[in-house]
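Lecture 7 notes: from sequence to structure.
We start with the chain below.
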Amino acid sequence: MEAVKRFIFPSSWGLKKGFEVILFAIVLSFFGVGAYFVSPYVTKLTKGSSVDLRGGFNNFSGFAPGIWMNGGLKANKESRMYKEFDLLFEANIFDDMSKLNEALKNGDLDFIFTTTDISPISMDKTSDLAKMSVSQFLKIDDSRGADVFIVDESIKTIADLRGKKISCALGWPSNTLLEKTLEAGGLTEKDVVILPMASPGDAKTAFLTKQSDATVVWNPDDAVCLKERASRVLTSTEFMPNIIMDGFVARKEVLEKKHEKFEKLVKAWLTANSEMRVESNMAEAAKTFKLAFKVEDPASDILEGMKKIHFATYGDNLNFFGLSTDFTGITGQMLYNNMARVYKNGYGNKLTDIVSWSDASYPGIIQKVNGLTGDLHAAEGQVKFAPATSSAITALAITTKTITVNFNFNSSILTPNEKMNINRSIGKSALEMSGYRIRVEGNTDNVGNHNSNVTLSKQRAQSVVNYLVSEYKFDRNRFIILGNGPDKPIADNTSEAGRSANRRTDFEFIQK
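Predicted structure tokens for the same chain:
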């Protein structure tokens, strides 16, 4: 202590000892008060520097794998996220989207969640997110039965929806399932009566109180609807498995500044996703998620919800960002562009100029990630089907798409022009509805020998199926091939126009 006093008050100053004591006490008090007031700011700065990345989430169970990897919400040096990937990550819960966006804008968060299919609604160039130059850098999951279109039991096909009242939360993923279902049946929003709801929960209530004939909800509300009202599943993301995709977005400047940190996050998150193939890991993730997000539902219910999610792999992300030349499915760009066209003026929107996918995506993080190899990290293939049973031959189709495929006389060989016709007319639907079996029926007019026409029509249907399997890598078991010959006319064979209409190929989508 004497040495400290000598440092503060050198002997050359000639101060009296009593006066030195008083001054020394004043100086110590000054430093004590300063430490008291400055300490919180120092602590805050220290805390800020101790966290590498902060993310914003809601209580969707699709986030469970990453939260499990992190051991909860807080940055945790005992977690696998830190021990295996050298990343201190913090998750923050937001129920208010405006506050979530504001936190991203202020720099309180480094990234937030997004849903690719509905993101165009919030990516008009006049929006806050667009002005922040946010970009999706990771796909984390696909809905696989978590979103469900429930209808009154009297409604059997998509065509039966015409004129019916449908309760749906617009601007939510439910909106995408509604749109894709209507599109599959050749309908638009103008062909039905949409009752806009604030949330999927409100949509469920409207259906249960019989304000609507149909509703689009998510798990577990679908089970409630089916239990409490005579109803059935019309479509769901089990059968349309590639139309609702979730991921993360961040400001481009932050992605570039913290590129290495984001690489670690992505590698850790995708590793956690890959481990969800083991149900015991998924069960542990459900428990961690329940505690972290303070969810009231039992962990077993959360687990059941997670089983209706496909957790994206590294390979899936290569496909999503268009980084694989072998991929024949739906990329992020295809989904985003398609829904941007739908939502620009549809479903009550008045958007002027939606940001392009090239500006709304950032594949650079995935491109830098390495070391995720093997089957666990590989992309999933097309949906697998068991061989069709005899009942599938006569099963009711949820929707039918009819196209005219022109063949040369007495030939079943597809021309290049007709391959393009098939891609344009049926390829997109077959991809989006990839969980449905397809019954392909070849039809002819009544000119010529009946038996020969039946044989030729089946050969032509087979040619169409062969092309779809080759072009899109669909499972061959997905298809049922029928040759009707002239036995199912849709027009009068007495005119050329009628005969032309009868020379067609019908694609009927039926449940597994």
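Points to note: The first strand starts at residue 53 and ends at 57. Residues 3-9, 33-48 have pLDDT under 50 and may be disordered.
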